[in-house]
Write a structure and sequence with these properties.
Layout: E1 8-13, H1 17-28, E2 33-37, E3 51-53, H2 57-66, H3 71-78, E4 79-85, E5 95-100, H4 102-114, E6 119-123, E7 126-137, E8 154-155, H5 161-164, E9 167-176, E10 181-189, E11 198-201, E12 204-206, E13 208-210, E14 213-214, H6 219-225, E15 229-237, E16 240-242, E17 252-254, E18 277-281, H7 284-292, H8 298-301, H9 315-321, E19 329-334, E20 341-345, H10 353-360, E21 371-373, E22 376-383, E23 397-398, E24 400-402, H11 412-437, H12 467-494, H13 517-528, H14 552-563, H15 568-590, H16 601-612, H17 614-632, H18 649-658, H19 663-667, H20 674-684
Parallel strand pairs: 1-2, 1-10, 2-6, 9-23, 10-24
Antiparallel strand pairs: 3-5, 4-5, 7-9, 8-15, 9-10, 11-12, 11-22, 13-14, 15-22, 16-20, 16-21, 17-18, 18-19, 19-20
Helix pairs in contact: 1-11, 2-11, 2-14, 3-4, 7-10, 14-15, 15-16
């Protein structure tokens, strides 16, 4: 067992859905991993909607499973309702969705983490990332975030010494609020809504990432000192109501499907108690109360600067923006079999509590409802994602990976998918780092430890720092950095290794847009960035016919096997499955009315869909092949776009900001014309 002061290959910061997948992936790949979270009791907590899956999101969950992740297995063990969405439509837009027992879901996730070999948990808060300057040049225009285009934009002015060097940095350690300095090879930041988090309920606001849970402060300032641009985004959650205070006779019942299809390809059968959801509607009286009190909403009073999710607006936004609507549909969803709380999907609000109480009681059946938790908005910091490579590694700091809401996304599924990819790549980096740089020393006292303290002159994390406090933080950080890096360098050299400043080379896992919704998600983020919380839709995936939820194992199992997250037996089983399906598809192409030759019903259904959509898939495959050819055109990191005289100044600016790795990635940058791509192709030879 490691001592109190120890070192790790991979440190995962944050224990939400992204952090859970990142930590499990790293540990299962054989890396010594630590998950650092403010509250171990809230690992993988469902802060908002108690559900997993949905349109495109359900596809992501099955992709996570195919890649060796855990989300699908957890929801199979904790669901309390299942529905296959869009059953009447084509297979490309069908998707599984389940209500989760949020208490059981979190318990299973925590138990899985705590019983996984190579994985340790630490209840603390990371306040600083320690880096060292390397011998590698920064990628050209590594500061790709457009100035003036990011909500709540903030750029570091008091840069660290390593950031001022003009060279790429690399991670060497993390510092926690209690003063622990932990040498690490790589770090995955999965900070959720806690990074600079602040909640709002009417005139009330508090420094929290969730109601009752304090935000994480100091780390944003650390990231800015490393040279990153940050912004502010906003999300919200509805009030929770006690079930026994609702008269369900006034509500429409919304049952799940009789046939429950497991999310995980490895789950044979889901055996869980199932419960119904219900539907209720707002009315004119609801809207009247909201309109009369709209000036008390922090969204309209100017207290919130962050941009909220376009596709999940608050009830006050719905009422004000869609004044012609007489009613809005709400889904009444149970949160757990172990609690009486009910979730009101579609009623997110940050109005004062007495206003929430008043408009809730205008809903049929809610006349005597009791609110156990009010709705609220939460504003938080994010790192503009064009500052990342498609591996989710930051361009400025080698070994530093971001996943989840820190990248500007919304949703458990989007976070988990990123967390899995970031965890895999952080592990691949860490393995290459060990090979190049040798052993890491355990941490020790005497490295400038500075625990958070209320004593005068000490570092105290807080939502806003004065200039003096920022200067003090900078001074403390530089002292810790100097002592820590000197300690690690001396240890390496004493063990015959002089590669302290070297950056390891590794082949990251990068998912293509034609391979996974997770690939679409990440490519959109790192290529286009986001100015609002990003949510995945099928419409974002140009290759969605190939990205069906039922074929995720075909597309991704080999990748999971190659990185060590699937066994050979598991991969061989998938290969055998699709050999049978391919034979059945060939039979159906010869004879569309052929009977099932004895395959399992699910295999036969997949074969039928493959045969039915063969023509459309072939047309799509042609487009995919064209894209593959473009992806093979690598663009040198230092390519001089100014050397192409016919390139418009707007296109040149965008290409220099994003610095795409391939011609295919360049073609997806908003505003880049086909003629620009043709010019690039000519100059790339």
């Amino acid at each position: 067992m490691p001592s109190f002061y120890s070192s790790y290959d991979v440190a995962v910061v944050g224990g939400g859905h992204a952090g859970t997948e990142a930590a499990l992936a790293a540990a299962r790949m054989g890396l010594k991993t630590v998950l650092i979270t403010q509250t171990i009791d809230s690992i993988a907590r469902m802060s908002c909607n108690p559900s997993i899956g949905g349109i495109a999101k359900g596809n992501i969950v099955r992709e996570i499973d195919a890649l060796g992740g855990e989300m699908a297995k957890i929801i199979d063990k904790s669901m309390i309702q299942f529905r296959m969405l869009n059953k009447s439509r084509g297979p490309a837009v069908q998707a599984p969705r389940s209500q989760a027992d949020k208490i059981i879901y979190s318990q299973i996730a925590r138990q899985t983490i705590e019983t996984t070999e190579n994985l340790h948990t630490l209840m603390d808060t990371v306040t600083d990332i320690i880096t060292a300057a390397t011998d590698e040049k920064l990628p050209p225009d590594s500061e790709s975030a457009q100035k003036g285009q990011i909500p709540g934009e903030s750029r570091g002015e008091n840069l660290s010494e390593a950031a001022r060097s003009g060279m790429m940095q690399k991670v060497t350690a993390v510092v926690t609020e209690r003063g622990r300095i932990i040498p690490v090879r790589s770090v995955v930041l999965t900070t959720g809504t806690f990074l600079g988090g602040r909640i709002f309920i009417g005139e009330y606001d508090a420094p929290c990432g969730r109601i009752g849970e304090t935000g994480a402060f100091g780390l944003t300032e650390s990231l800015r000192r490393l040279g990153f641009t940050t912004g502010r985004l906003k999300t919200g959650t509805p009030p929770r109501i006690l079930r026994r205070t609702i008269d369900f006779s006034f509500l429409e019942e919304n049952d799940g499907d009789d046939e429950v299809i497991p999310f995980s390809f490895e789950t044979e059968k889901v055996e869980r108690p199932m419960v119904p959801c219900h539907v209720v509607y707002t009315n004119e009286e609801t809207h009247k109360i909201i309109r009369e009190n709209i000036s008390r909403s922090p969204l309209y009073s100017g207290k919130i600067s962050g941009v909220g999710p376009r596709y999940c607006p608050s009830i006050e936004d719905k009422v004000m923006r869609f004044a012609e609507r007489e009613r809005h549909q709400l889904f009444v969803e149970p949160e757990s079999l172990l609690t009486d709380e009910i979730y009101l999907n579609g009623l997110s609000s940050s109005l004062p509590e007495e206003v929430q109480d008043a408009f809730l009681r205008t809903l049929p059946g809610f006349e005597k409802c009791h609110v156990s938790r009010p709705g609220y908005a939460v504003e938080y910091d994010y790192v503009e994602p064009t500052q990342l490579f498609p591996s989710l590694e930051t361009k400025r700091v080698a070994g530093l990976f971001n996943a989840g809401q820190i990248n500007g996304t919304s949703g458990y599924e989007e976070a988990a998918g990123q967390g899995l990819v970031a965890g895999i790549n952080a592990s691949l980096y860490a393995k290459a780092h060990e090979e190049l740089c040798g052993k890491l020393p355990d941490a020790k006292s005497g490295l400038g430890q500075s625990p958070s303290s209320a004593e005068e002159g000490s570092f105290q994390p807080k939502p806003k720092f004065s200039e003096d406090e920022l200067e003090r933080f900078s001074r403390i950080s530089e002292n810790i950095t100097t002592l820590t890096n000197e300690y690690i360098r001396n240890f390496s050299e004493s063990n015959g290794n002089s590669n302290f400043r070297a950056v390891p080379k590794y082949e990251p896992l990068i998912l293509g847009r034609d391979e996974a919704y997770i690939g679409v998600l990440i490519d959109d983020l790192v290529t286009l960035g986001t100015k609002e919380p990003y949510r995945m839709f099928t419409a974002r995936a140009e290759y969605r016919l190939k990205l069906r939820h039922d074929t995720a194992d075909r597309r991704l199992s080999e990748k999971a096997f190659r990185v060590g997250l699937k066994t050979k037996a598991q991969f061989d089983s998938v290969s055998a499955k699709y050999a049978l399906i391919d034979e059945a598809s060939a039979l159906l192409l010869k004879n569309p009315s052929a009977e099932n030759p004895g395959l399992p019903p699910l295999f036969w259904e997949i074969a039928q869909e493959d045969a039915k959509y063969k023509y459309y898939i072939e047309k799509q495959d042609a487009r995919v092949e064209k894209m593959h050819k473009m992806e093979k055109y690598r663009i040198p990191a230092d390519f001089d776009y100014g050397a192409i005289p016919a390139l418009s100044s707007e296109s040149r600016q965008k290409l220099e900001q994003v610095r795409p790795l391939t011609l295919g990635q360049a073609s997806r940058i908003s505003g880049i014309r086909n003629s620009d791509i043709m010019l690039l192709m000519v100059y790339l030879g």
